[in-house]
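Q: What structure does this chain adopt?
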Amino acid sequence: MSPYEARQYDEQFSNIEPEQEPKPKSSEWLLFLGGVAFTFFIALLGFFLAKLPGFNQVGLLASAILIAILYRQLFDYPEKIRSGIDFSAKKILRLAIILYGLKLNIGIVISDGLGLLIRDVGVIIFAILLTLWLAKRFKADKNISLLLGVGTGVCGAAAIAAVAPIVKAKDEDTALSVGIIALVGTIFAITYTILRPILPMADVEYGIWSGISLHEIAHVALAAAPGGEDALAMGLLAKLGRVFLLVPLCFILMYWMKRKSDGKESAQSKVPFPYFLIGFIVMSILGSYVFGASIPVPDGFMDGVATFSTWCLTAAMVGLGLNVNLKDVRTKALRPLFAMGITSILLSIITFFII
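A:
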């Protein structure tokens, strides 16, 4: 081989990179666990932020999502630990919804809240249809508007999280919707407490009004508390009726999505069955008829499970919040926010007169 040929040979093969060895599985597991831990760490930061004046009215969920979105804008998405973050955003989210079922006492809703349940059905239909109608008029993002309509009509973040996989919403759309519902719901709850002294309503009526018109269980508790114990009890009962209706709503949306995808069946168009809803129903039955009745449970057990489910839901929302790019917020979220805001105002006014 001549010197020239040898030089050409060297140049040709000098840029070939050696085959990279696959990462050891222990390293993948560490990155996975690191991603899960990262979402809970930001959730913990959200907990401390929610203790500060101003943020204590916004709440844990919104505070944690805010930190997650801010982190994404400043440091970009932490790709190395994506597997763990995705696990929090999807699997831990489903676990949180399943555990959320313990908060629903089916017996009380059916025996004491049947009249309220009928009004709850009307609230959900009104909130979803009006939000979608306004979104169409405003040319707003349809998926975000649907999620906000469901969150307004049913039970805020938990409802949005349950419906999102059924309607195939993007993670960033889900996170934006949860953040908006938490913020708007807090504003409404505080407004209710300010208006309470001048409203011509009995305590029980005020509690019912809060329960059938506000967004989250926490918002209902915040608004109804100034009305006393009776107002708080009736408010939570009315709200639990809306939580109860989350399951049939999910199955209706499944049927609707399946109808939409008929004729174009593919792996992408198939509607996944929300198996976590079965868990939600089972936990509701256990909480309503088994724990504390047939099977004695330690003091504080239910409160402990509720706290754990809140942390799981917060970590999951952090995982979703890390997907949010603020460049898209103004173009995607502003118009759905207007649609949902108008719906919330009209819902409060109409329910005020039908109590």
